[in-house]
Amino acid sequence: MMKKDSKKSKPRRPERTEEMKALDSSLGSFGLEPPKIYRQGQRVASSDAPKKSAPKKRGKHTPQHTAPREQVKKQNQKRRLKKEVRRALYAILIALGIVTVIVVLSLTVLFKIETITISGNKQYTKQQISAVLPIATEKNLFTADTGGAKEKLETNLPYIYHAEIKRKFPSTITVNITETPQIYYIKNADKSYTYMDDNFKVLESRTEKAPKKGVEIRKAAIKNAVNGTPVEFTDKKVEKNLFKLSDTVKKIEMEKVTALYSQDINNNFIVFDGRITIKLGSLDNAEDKLYAALSAIDKLSESNPQAEGELTATSDKQIYFTEK
Length: 324
Known about the structure:
By secondary structure, the protein is of the alpha/beta class. The chain contains six helices and 14 strands.
């Protein structure tokens, strides 16, 4: 048997064809090497071909940083809100600047007082009122202290019962005077008289006779009397009762009152028409008692218009008259 060769025989290279030989002879004449023969499937490496970088591999657990739609929407809303707030702040600042300019102009250049009108005065002349009034022309209309001017007029000119001071744009101040409607008076120990209004503000003191029209305060003594301020009585309890009597007369608009006085808390009196003294007792339900007393006086006047005496009205239900 023939022995097999242990070594494999190498494959023989194919003999070159006549064309290849001819190509070799032609290339050899130029000193060039013959081209290399590549196997099928191999690529020709060219030095001129651009090298493509291999794509980066993304890790399996690398998170994709893409915000959700809701988050993006909220961020846009915040941005819009900030813009709106800035616009609002700018608008407010501009408005404040305009207001500041207007205020400065109003207090310095515009609205100067050119005219002051005074009306309702009889006791005092316009010159006397103007001399006391702390408001003058060429001053600013807005800075004029109308409240202080009112108080000053009513204190320094006591017969001014009420002063109404108003601004009238663009350049006028109006002063409307209401003088004392009712005078109260008291005869002092030295035979002088102190005049007051129905709030017991001191009007003046005189040595002459009592005024022809006025309400006399009887059986009371004055501790202190300064013009333009409320009077001070020596007896504080009597003072309190007199104030309440005066307020009651004013509330019911009682006419023909000629005098009033108080002895103590349970003995208070009002004199009607100089001839009938109304005894009220305490001042509880004083208005009701006075209405009942006036109704009784009307009936009494029908039978005796000139009747004089004391009408007891300590209760609005039990009233009787004691003729003098």
